[in-house]
Design a protein that fits this description.
heterodimer; A: 341 residues; alpha/beta; D-Maltodextrin-Binding Protein, domain 2; 14 helices; globular; B: 386 residues; alpha+beta; MetI-like fold; 4-stranded antiparallel sheet; two-stranded antiparallel sheet; 10% strand
C-alpha cells in the first residue's frame, strides 16, 4: 500500500515537472491531433453544421489550418466548444491547445488573465440589434432600455461604459451564460435590444425565424479585433501559431489559392519558393514542417477563401468585406502579414 | 506486570496511525496547492486578491450593495464604478434574497402539500400526489427554463400589460404598489422600531404574552397619528421603455424563486407526510376520542410531534435550496455564482473568485445548519426528553 502511494506520488511529481518543461508543440505532435477551443454556437464563425454534424465556420477553419500545417491533414482536430466564460480557463488549465473563438484582444486579457494573443483574424465592432416594431433608429434612442448580452465578454463592459458616458438612468443590462439564451430572451421580448459583435448579430439575425423583423443599428460602439489565443510563456508554440495565421494572409496577397497552388509550386520567384517551403528553412526555424504554408493552402485555402466560404456573399451569413477593415492592406483594409523572409 | 513495548501499545499505535494519516492528507493538499501555484507561475498568472479593490466597470441588473456615503454605511443599488468586492456583495445579497424568500414559501407550500397527501378528500389527495410526483421527477434546471422561458416571458409585453388595482403584470416583471418612506418617516422611526421590538419580545421572550403585543400595536398606531404620513404608496406607472415606481419582482427573480419553491416543496411534502405517518395511529384516535376535530388534531397533537421528525431533514432541504439557487445563472439572475462569472472574466481572477464563492456558500450553509440545529434542540426539548 505504502509503496503504491509512493509510486503514484513520484509519478505525479514527474509528470508535473515534465509538463512544465515541454513546449505544447511537442505535446501536440506526440498526441497526433490538435485540441482546439471554438465557439460552437456562433453562426458563421464556429457552429455545428446541421446536415453533417461537423464543426464549421470561419474560426473553425483556423483550427483546421493549424492541423494542416502540423499533420498535413486538416481534420486531426478535436473541437472543444467553449462558452465566453470558460474560454480563458480552458487555456489557463491547458485543457485545449489553442482557442479560435471570436475573442477580442484587450490589455487586461493579455496582462492579468494570462493568455497570449495571435494575430487578428477578424476586425469587428460592437453593435446593437432591435426589433423593427420598436421603431428605434439609433442607439442614442435607447435610454432606459433593457439590453441583453452574454457573460464574460467585452460587450458587457462596453455597453456599461456607453450608458455611463451618456449619463443615462434606468438602463438595465441582463447577462446570460450563452448567446442562444440571450437571443431567446430577446426574441420573447424580455429585452429591448441585444448587443454583441456585429458579425455575431449578422449571424443571429440570419438564423431568426423572420430576419426582416430585426434591425442592426448603424452605430459601432467599440473596436473588437478578434484573434485566437494560447498560453503565456510558451513562445515556440505561439510563434508557430502566429505564422500559420499570417500565412493565410500572405497567401492571399501573393494570390495563391487552393486551386492554383500547384502552379505556384512550379514558380521560380524566390519569395514564393521560400514562402511555400521549396527553398530556405522558414518552416524549420519555427519548428514546423518546412512546407507548412503549402499544406495550409492546399487543405484550407488563403484568408480570402476562408472568409468567402463562411462570410462571403454566397453564405447565409454575408458580411461585406470589400473596403472593410478585413480587406487586405493593398485594398485599403488592415489585413497585413509581416514578410516571410 | 509486564510492560508493553510502545510499538505494541494499542493506544500509541492508534495515535500514530492518526498522525501518519493526517500528515499524508496534509501533504496531499500541499502537493495539489503547490502544483496549482507552480502551474500558474509558469504561465505567468499571479495569485492575488488585490483585484477586489479595483473598479468593476460592469453593471448588475438588480440587487444592492453596501457603500460608504457621507460617512454612513448605506445599502444602495450596485453601480459600475463600484469595486469588485461590492459586486460580490451584490451577488451574496441576491442569493440571500432568493434563498430566504424561497425557504419561507417552500416551507408553507411543502407543509400544505404534505398534509394534503394524507387528506381524505379524494381531489386534494390526488392533486397533491400528482404535484409531488411530477415535480420531484423532473430536473430542477428544466423546470427553471420552463418557468422562465415558458411561463414568465410569455406574459404580455409591457405596452399591453394587464393592470389590476395598480399592479402591472408583464414579461418585464410584476410591479406592485409599495409603501415607501414619506415625509413623516423620520419622526415615525422611533415608534416603528419600538413597536417592532415589543412584537419580537412578545413572540420570543415571553411566549405570546398579550400585553406586549398590545403595547406594540399601540406604539405603531400612535406613532402613525403623531408623525402623519410616515409611508406613502408608490404606484407603478409605465413610462417609455420601463415602469417607474412601485416594487418590482424581476422575471429572473420570479423564475428562480418559483422554480426553487415548487421543486423543494415537493421534497418537503414527502418529509412531512413521512413524519405524520410515522406517528402511531393511536395518536389520531386518542385526539378524536377527546372530541378534537381534524384541524385541531393536526394543529395540537400531530404536527407538534411530527415536527421533531421533520426538522433535521427539513434543514437539508433548506441547504439544497440555497445551493440550488446557483442555477440562477441559467436565466440570468445575478446571484453570487452569476456575478462571479462576470468578475472572473473581467478580472481574470477565476481561482481567487471561486475560492471566495465557495467560502460564501460554505458559510451560508453552515449558518443555516446552525440555525436549524438550534431550532431542533428547542423542539426536541419541548416534548418528552429522550
Amino acid at each position: 500500500m505504502k509503496r503504491l502511494v509512493l509510486i503514484v506520488l513520484s509519478f505525479l511529481l514527474l509528470t508535473a515537472f515534465g509538463l512544465a518543461q515541454k513546449s505544447r508543440m511537442d505535446v501536440v505532435m506526440e498526441r497526433g491531433k490538435l485540441i482546439c477551443g471554438v465557439n460552437g454556437k456562433a453562426p458563421g464563425f464556429g457552429y455545428v453544421d446541421e446536415k453533417t454534424g461537423k464543426y464549421m465556420g470561419f474560426d473553425v477553419d483556423f483550427c483546421r489550418a493549424v492541423s494542416a500545417a502540423l499533420f498535413d491533414d486538416p481534420d486531426r482536430v478535436e473541437y472543444v466548444p467553449l462558452t465566453a466564460k470558460a474560454r480563458f480557463n480552458a487555456i489557463q488549465t491547458g485543457e485545449v491547445d489553442v482557442v479560435f473563438r471570436n475573442t477580442t484582444i484587450t490589455t487586461s486579457r493579455d496582462g492579468s488573465v494570462g493568455v497570449d494573443f495571435l494575430p487578428v483574424n477578424f476586425y469587428d465592432g460592437q453593435g446593437v440589434m432591435v426589433k423593427k416594431e420598436l421603431g428605434v433608429k439609433s442607439v442614442y434612442e435607447l435610454e432606459g432600455a433593457t439590453v441583453c448580452t452574454n457573460q464574460g465578454t467585452t460587450t458587457e463592459k462596453n455597453w456599461t461604459d456607453f450608458v455611463r458616458s451618456q449619463g443615462w438612468k434606468g438602463n438595465k443590462l441582463l447577462t446570460f451564460e450563452s448567446f442562444d439564451k440571450v437571443f431567446n430572451a430577446f426574441m420573447s421580448g424580455r429585452c429591448d435590444a441585444v448587443t454583441t459583435d456585429k458579425s455575431g448579430l449578422v449571424g443571429w439575425k440570419a438564423k431568426a425565424p423572420d430576419p426582416e423583423a430585426l434591425v442592426i443599428l448603424p452605430e459601432t460602439l467599440s473596436k473588437e479585433p478578434l484573434a485566437g489565443f494560447t498560453f503565456q510563456n510558451d513562445s515556440r508554440w505561439r510563434d508557430a501559431l502566429t505564422w500559420i495565421v499570417y500565412a493565410t494572409i500572405q497567401a492571399e496577397e501573393f494570390g495563391i489559392t487552393q486551386k492554383n497552388l500547384d502552379e505556384f509550386l512550379k514558380s521560380d520567384k524566390p519569395a514564393i519558393r521560400r514562402f511555400l517551403g521549396l527553398e530556405g528553412t522558414l518552416g524549420k526555424g519555427l519548428g514546423l514542417p518546412n512546407d507548412f504554408v503549402a499544406r495550409v493552402i492546399r487543405h484550407v485555402g488563403n484568408y480570402g477563401e476562408i472568409y468567402d466560404r463562411h462570410l462571403g456573399p454566397n453564405s447565409p451569413f454575408f458580411i461585406p468585406r470589400k473596403g472593410s477593415l478585413n480587406d487586405l492592406y493593398t485594398r485599403g483594409g488592415l489585413m497585413y502579414s509581416p514578410p516571410f523572409r | 506486570m509486564k510492560t508493553v513495548p510502545f510499538y505494541k501499545n494499542i493506544k500509541v499505535l492508534g495515535v500514530l496511525t492518526q498522525v501518519v494519516v493526517s500528515l499524508l492528507v496534509l501533504f496531499g493538499l500541499y502537493f495539489l496547492g503547490r502544483t496549482a501555484y507552480e502551474g500558474m507561475v509558469s504561465r505567468g498568472i499571479p495569485f492575488t486578491f488585490s483585484f477586489l479593490w479595483q473598479e468593476a466597470g460592469f453593471s448588475i441588473s438588480e440587487g444592492k450593495t453596501i457603500a460608504l456615503e457621507g460617512g454612513r454605511i448605506v445599502l444602495r443599488p450596485f453601480e459600475p464604478s463600484d469595486a469588485y468586492w461590492q459586486a460580490f456583495f451584490t451577488g451574496v445579497y441576491n442569493t440571500l434574497r432568493v434563498s430566504i424568500a424561497g425557504i419561507v414559501l417552500t416551507t408553507l407550500l411543502g407543509v400544505m402539500v404534505g398534509v394534503g397527501r394524507l387528506s381524505s378528500n379524494w381531489l386534494v389527495n390526488r392533486l397533491s400526489f400528482a404535484y409531488v410526483e411530477l415535480v420531484r421527477n423532473t430536473p430542477l434546471l428544466v423546470q427553471l427554463f420552463f418557468w422562465y422561458f415558458g411561463a414568465i416571458l410569455k406574459l404580455p409585453p409591457i405596452r399591453q400589460a394587464s393592470e389590476w388595482f395598480g399592479m402591472i403584470v408583464s414579461q418585464r416583471g410584476v410591479f406592485v404598489p409599495w409603501p415607501v418612506p414619506g415625509p413623516g418617516f423620520d419622526r415615525y422611526l422611533p415608534f416603528f422600531l419600538g413597536g417592532l421590538l415589543a412584537f419580537l419580545l412578545g413572540a420570543f421572550w415571553s411566549r405570546g404574552r398579550r400585553g406586549l403585543w398590545l403595547l406594540g400595536l399601540l406604539l405603531l398606531a400612535a406613532g402613525w397619528l403623531y408623525a402623519g404620513d410616515p409611508f406613502v404608496l408608490s404606484v407603478p406607472e409605465k413610462r417609455g421603455f420601463r415602469v417607474v415606481g412601485g416594487a418590482q419582482l424581476s422575471p429572473e427573480f420570479s423564475a428562480v424563486l418559483l422554480a426553487l419553491v415548487v421543486y423543494t416543496a415537493s421534497y418537503i411534502a414527502e418529509i412531512v407526510r413521512g413524519a405524520i405517518q410515522s406517528l402511531p395511529k393511536g395518536q389520531w384516535e386518542a385526539a378524536f376520542s377527546l372530541g378534537l376535530n381534524y384541524g385541531q388534531t393536526l394543529r395540537y397533537v400531530i404536527l407538534p410531534q411530527a415536527l421533531r421528525i421533520i426538522v433535521p431533514p427539513l434543514g437539508n432541504q433548506y441547504l439544497n435550496l440555497t445551493k440550488n439557487s446557483s442555477l440562477a445563472i441559467a436565466v440570468g439572475y445575478p446571484d453570487l455564482f452569476n456575478v462571479y462569472g462576470t468578475i472572473a472574466n473581467q478580472s481574470g481572477r477565476s481561482l481567487e473568485g471561486i475560492l471566495i464563492v465557495m467560502g460564501v456558500y460554505l458559510s451560508l450553509s453552515l449558518t443555516i445548519s446552525a440555525l436549524v440545529n438550534a431550532y431542533n434542540r428547542r423542539v426536541a426539548l419541548r416534548g418528552a426528553r429522550r
